[in-house]
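Throughout our pipeline, every protein is held as a single compact record rather than as scattered files. This encoding replaces a full spatial description with a residue-level series of whole-number codes. The remainder of this section carries one protein's record, kept here as part of the documentation.
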Amino acid sequence: MAETKTVKFIIQRQDNENSAPYEEEFEVPYRPGMNVISALMEVRRNPVNAKGQATSPITWDMNCLEEVCGACSMIINGKPRQSCSALVDQLEQPIRLAPMRTFPVVRDLQVDRSRMFDALKRVKAWIPIDGTYDLGPGPRMPENKRQWAYELSKCMTCGVCLEACPNVNSKSSFIGPQPLSQVRLFNAHPTGEMNKAERLETIMGEGGLTNCGNSQNCVQSCPKGIPLTTSIAALNRETTFQAFRNFFGSDRS
């Protein structure tokens, strides 16, 4: 009888946010085309480690399973990425999994990404309109602006760029490249532009643009290929103009 092919995983585990991390090895039956998520689901179905000992199921976040929601971000072989699109056949083995350390660990591979969502609230990453009655069609964006704005809108709030950025850590208040790029996106919208000055002044303060070290790790790691550094450069220009407006007391945007 032919021997069943297996895939070895070394997973960094943590029982809760206050406990120490530890590693546990698992061997999962191989299937052609399997991704990291399907391997984790196999461990959850049969939570037995490589030593044959029964253990607790692995905890992680997931949702869409097609690299759209951004929930399943983790460190795979030393790099932050989406586990749903990480194919076992394309990974060096043994495959090492760990949680993103930019965010507090909840348990195992599950992290609390509140830091990123709080930053989006801080920069007002939305378009405030009154939806209680029909306002009619909104203003149209020029096609050339719409095209690059669409690239920014691909962001799925996965947190990979924050994990890759050396300036985003527990000792820094830097909001990171993702919220900054969203400032550029919503400031480009004809309706969102109403709050342009407010957003710019927010990122001119503590934890904003000046905390960016221009390592460019973010744009290299982004799973959607979003031009994050281009947005940061454009915002540096916009905040310079905003500083002049503030100095000379102009209300023009």
